[in-house]
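Per your request, structure below.
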């Protein structure tokens, strides 16, 4: 989990770190400190290694490895000083995670960058990536890596914020109340965006209104005079708007609604992209998104609104969206050779909830198929939905029909509800686990098919994608319609 500083200047000096963390130095690094990491396996030369204690491993066990691999200094706690001494320079603190948080706060305090934070039930990471592309056209931009949006991911991303960055983009996630609040108070954004509110993580909430309230916590961390950006088409818009006003924010909206500040005027949904005409704060703009999906169009409106509010050039931001490519596991595409033709695979295996499941099926409905090909969905359980889980799974049958999916393969006890709700002609196979589904899915595919693989992380659908790659030779390993972003 390393991300070296790509900007010109050193990221930190040892005295700066010691001051930020109230720690004491044991030895001095030889060169500049170029980045921050919590993973000894991917540590870069000159990076600071924070020996965090995780759920499985204690990072102190890998201090020697990190320093031998070129880390500039390791941050350790008092209790592990003796076992870590002798491997290289150390910064000794009371608690390593607290020290990482303090480093992140210090990075934010010294920064002059315009900061944008994004949360939402669906689309956080893809929206964060689109924001990174849009703002980078206007100035040096730092953004969260992958989905670093939790209690260690946010301070880690902050700690990597270079002094010279002109923009910063942060993803903030949650699965229970009061989780966003402390994170956004670290980030202190100038602009905060909520992509949407959907029935996700319902196991931790009484209802969807509770989820909306938890998402609205992001507005509490806005700097004075900050901007709240809200989906005007979401049923919880008024609730989010009221929370933003209560936090002292100026409220702006995006969507198809006639009063949206970033309003969709026209859209052409294509197999591999979308062409959009919109009006952003009164300014007409036409742009292309380099990946397909109606949900991406919606969030792109919010991205351009955020960019404009952050002071970026709207035209440059819009042009940049043509380079957007879905992150791995969130809509990335590749083709596999099969029987004299090819199979299109859409990898949506990173996570799932009812809203993202509908979007993935709609994406499959737009996908091209070859001669005799079918649109096939391989779906795993959507987790953390509480008592309503079986019913929410059964309702996916409506989206299957609406998107004209030909065959559905299901994995997991909750997905049995969907399988039973499907008409016989659409039933492919049901299995208790994704691993047990694998042989049936592979045997059921043929040249010309398009298949989407989707499920919550815990349903383990990702290995299905790997198995498909191993079974068939790749025609193209990346989506050729988009540039890597």
């Amino acid at each position: 989990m390393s991300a070296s500083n790509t900007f010109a200047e050193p990221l930190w000096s040892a005295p700066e770190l010691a001051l930020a963390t109230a720690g004491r130095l044991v030895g001095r690094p030889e060169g500049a400190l170029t980045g921050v990491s919590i993973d000894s396996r991917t540590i870069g030369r000159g990076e600071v290694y924070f020996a965090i204690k995780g759920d499985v491993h204690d990072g102190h066990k890998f201090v020697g490895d990190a320093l031998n691999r070129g880390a500039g200094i390791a941050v350790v706690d008092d209790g592990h000083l003796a076992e870590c001494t002798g491997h290289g320079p150390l910064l000794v603190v009371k608690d390593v995670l607290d020290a990482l948080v303090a480093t992140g706060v210090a990075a934010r305090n010294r920064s002059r960058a315009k900061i944008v934070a994004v949360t939402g039930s669906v689309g956080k990471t893809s929206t964060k990536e689109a924001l990174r592309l849009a703002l980078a056209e206007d100035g040096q931009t730092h953004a969260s890596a992958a989905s670093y949006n939790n209690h260690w991911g946010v301070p880690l991303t902050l700690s990597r914020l270079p002094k010279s960055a002109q923009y910063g983009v942060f993803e903030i996630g949650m699965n229970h109340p009061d989780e966003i609040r402390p994170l956004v108070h670290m980030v202190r954004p100038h602009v905060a965006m909520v992509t949407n509110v959907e029935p996700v993580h319902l196991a931790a909430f009484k209802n969807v209104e509770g989820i909306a309230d938890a998402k609205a916590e992001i507005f509490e961390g806005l700097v004075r005079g900050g901007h709240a950006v809200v989906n005007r088409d979401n049923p919880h818009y008024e609730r989010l708007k009221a929370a933003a006003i209560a936090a002292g924010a100026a409220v702006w909206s995006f969507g198809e609604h006639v009063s949206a500040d970033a309003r969709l005027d026209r859209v052409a949904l294509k197999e591999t992209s979308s062409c959009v005409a919109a009006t952003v704060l009164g300014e007409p703009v036409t742009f292309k998104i380099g990946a397909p999906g109606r949900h991406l169009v919606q969030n792109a409106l919010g991205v351009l609104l955020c960019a404009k509010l952050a002071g970026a050039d709207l035209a440059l931001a819009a042009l940049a969206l043509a380079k957007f490519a879905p992150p791995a596991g969130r809509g990335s595409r590749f083709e596999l050779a099969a029987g004299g033709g090819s199979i299109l695979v859409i990898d949506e295996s990173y996570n799932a909830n009812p809203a993202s499941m509908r979007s993935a099926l709609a994406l499959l409905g737009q996908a091209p198929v070859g001669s005799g090909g079918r649109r096939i969905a391989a779906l795993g359980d959507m987790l953390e939905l509480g008592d309503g889980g079986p019913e929410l799974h059964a309702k996916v049958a409506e989206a299957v029909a609406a998107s004209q999916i030909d065959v559905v393969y299901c994995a997991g006890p909750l997905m049995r509800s969907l399988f039973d709700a499907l008409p016989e002609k659409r039933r492919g196979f049901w299995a208790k686990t994704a691993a047990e589904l694998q042989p049936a899915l592979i045997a059921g595919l043929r040249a010309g098919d398009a298949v989407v693989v989707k499920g919550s992380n815990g349903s383990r659908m990702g290995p299905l994608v790997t198995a498909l790659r191993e079974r068939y030779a790749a025609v193209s390993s990346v989506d050729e319609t988009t540039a890597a972003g």
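The chain is about 30% helix and 20% strand.

Regards,
D.
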